[in-house]
Structures are given as C-alpha cells and as structure tokens.
Amino acid sequence: GAVVSQHPSWVICKSGTSVKIECRSLDFQATTMFWYRQFPKQSLMLMATSNEGSKATYEQGVEKDKFLINHASLTLSTLTVTSAHPEDSSFYICSARDQAGGYNQPQHFGDGTRLSIL
Amino acid sequence: QKEVEQNSGPLSVPEGAIASLNCTYSDRGSQSFFWYRQYSGKSPELIMFIYSNGDKEDGRFTAQLNKASQYVSLLIRDSQPSDSATYLCAVLTDSWGKLQFGSGTQVVVTP
Predict the structure, then answer these.
(1) β pairing state of A57-58 and A107-109
(2) DSSP 3-state assignment of A28?
(3) Is A5 exposed, middle or buried (0-12, 13-18, 19+ CB in 10 A)?
(4) In terms of pLDDT, which residue wins out, B1 or B89?
(5) Which chain B residues are closer than 8 Å to A112 by Cβ?
C-alpha cells in the first residue's frame, strides 16, 4: 500500500520551456502533498506544501510564480516549472500522506523527476 | 528554527555487523519520528516510524526513541552491502505532515 506515482521520470528540454510534473497517490487519498528539490550530494529541500482545493504554501525563498502547484483532487498534485532555465535543473520529488489514520502518518515518496534544462 | 541533526558519515560497517545511526532534535514537543533510506540517485523510502519511547523492531531494523534526551536512533543488524545508502532522520513538525529532515548519514557496508 501507500504507492505514490510521479511522472515523468526524466525531462530534458530547452531553456524557456515550461515543464509539468505529476504526482499521484495510487491507493490512498492525500489531503496534503509535498514537493521537494534535491541537488547532487545535497539534502532534500522542501519547496512547498500542497493542500487539496487550496493554494499551496511555499517555503521561504521559493518563487511561487516560477513553481506553480495545483492540487485539484485528493490523488493528484502537479508542479509546473515555468520558463525553466539551466539553474532549475535538479531532482524534483513529491510525497503524499494518507489522510486516514490520523496525525502520525508518514510521507510516502514518488520516484522523483530528473529535470535537465539545456 | 527547529533542527534535526545527524552525523554525515560516512559510517563504514563490515558486512554482518551492526550499524548504529543517531539523530538528535531540538523541539522538545516533537511526537513522531521517521527513518528513510535513500539510495544514490533515488528518492527516499520509508523504513520505520516511531512515536513512543523505547524500541521498535522491524526485521533487521530497530528504532529507538528517547524523548527526554531528544534523540532517536536506528540500528541495522546483520548489515548487508545492499544497506549502503544515506539514512535520513525526520521529525513531524505540524498537523499537515510537514517533516524536518536531518542532512542524512551515509552508510557504507563493506564485504
């Protein structure tokens, strides 16, 4: 149980392109999903918390107009990197929590999306 | 600023030995703790969670929690080369499920 699917796994595109990444909870409903970014040999960095039906909460220093997050259903959240540039190249990972079972539920991670901007 | 601290390692462990990983946290009110394993180039995967003081065992893994001393640890028994990875300690920080992660401890199991 608690499977999170993230698509695509790899994206290579030209500078200036917008890229959409999908995160789906396959066997549970997720009121809250999270988006992280990780540069090589560095720690996970939380970008934003995505709540179903409401605006995402962005961490300090993350540009909300650059990284658009939509959480339209209990099983799907999307991250769109708008007008991507080479410095946006990174490993983007989503996670989701099963809303059943209460406060202590862990986050379950998708497989991540490796984004390369040329 | 809530902090979660881990020794970055690498922690070198002979195959078959016990790997011991430690994590300390700053928020005395923290209630829920998680251990994730992350292989190089992959996303984190949940190994264990622990909420109550004491030990919790799952297969070769044992999590230990001491809220009074504000530390949580992970023991890996009979370490295997496939256990070579970075282990992330995480502390639940709010009701939405936001986690504060440590920087991770790299474990290298040598045959």
Answers:
(1) unpaired
(2) coil
(3) middle
(4) B89
(5) 42-43
